[in-house]
Amino acid sequence: MNASHTIDTPSNAVGAVSVVSVRSDDLDGVFDVLKMSPMRVGEISLRSVLGLDDALFARFDERTLMLMPHGGIGNTRVISEALVDVGIPIRKESDLLRKYPEAGDIHEARMLDALSKSPSPLAVDVLLNQPELWRAVSDEETVERGSTLRHLIDPPLVVAVGRANIGKSSLVNALAGSSIAMVSDHAGTTRDHLGVMLDLAGLVVRWVDTPGIDERVEVGEELGVLEPVIQRADLVVHAIDHDDALGALDPRLSAHIADQTTIIRIGMRSDLGDSKCSTDYLCSVKSSEGIDGVVRGIRDRLVDPAELSTPKAWRFW
Length: 317
Ligand SMILES: Nc1nc2c(ncn2[C@@H]2O[C@H](COP(=O)(O)OP(=O)(O)O)[C@@H](O)[C@H]2O)c(=O)[nH]1
Ligand SMILES: [Mg+2]
Fold this sequence. Notes:
Elements lengths: L2 E5 L12 E5 L2 H7 L10 E4 L7 E5 L4 E5 L4 H13 L8 H6 L6 H12 L3 H15 L21 E6 L5 H9 L17 E7 L2 E7 L11 H12 L2 E7 L9 H4 L7 E7 L12 E2 L8 H12 L2 H4 L9
Parallel strand pairs: 6-8, 6-9, 9-10, 10-11
Antiparallel strand pairs: 1-2, 2-5, 3-4, 4-5, 7-8
Helix pairs in contact: 4-5
């Protein structure tokens, strides 16, 4: 007997009755394990099975038997557990299928649900492809939930660090296309940790701008506030000014960067001169040179382009 059941009424709310549907290609087998006399299609009757409370039973079609017991949360759970005990497992997907009645199957319902939560434009095509990929899937082909594609649904945390007054806040403004961080000629203007959502060529990230921290800053409050943010970063942007010969990150910061965190070194204010140390990218907010490269570089480190274009199914829920 291949049977399963779903709880079709909200599983966290009380109603006069709850509705539990048992589906099987072999309903006679279901009647057997429930130790009840078989019902014809269209028949409705009040019965008690498995020693439980009376419930209204209805056989809607060849494959579906509905149980409508009293709608208490506990009562519904007892019935569900009794069904599991006799070999009729629960399928929890029904919540999603109810939420998205327009979905043709569970793959589509999952996709629509993920789409509604994904802020990144890049997620749209990837998710739209998933129902078809999952319908054709064999297990060894799948991309696990933990792949970099997860960043399409949960915006990754990007933390920009580096010395004060080298253009970190100006860069956020340029990336956002509007003025959200305070920019100033005086060192250390950015006192608060501004977290803003930025769309980097289709990937939405949470970008945290930090006040300049370098060897000239005394150990104190600022570092304490920064530590947990740095620890949680998915990517650290280390901004380095054009004339900084060492390009060293203050060890009080680097000590808190997790091993798996990607660090990208960006040479800032490149219009003022050539970089004096090695960097991954160069950019100038003033001339716009290199900004596109920075955007794409960060995006590609957070979402692997190979995974983005993979024809494999992705376990995104
Ligand atoms: N020449 C030039 N100046 C810049 C550039 N980006 C920022 N600045 C200037 O550098 C100064 C410090 O900028 P700010 O963004 O506040 O630096 P932060 O302290 O690192 O956040 C300001 O006077 C900006 O106008 C750039 O690409 N080129
Ligand atoms: Mg700043």
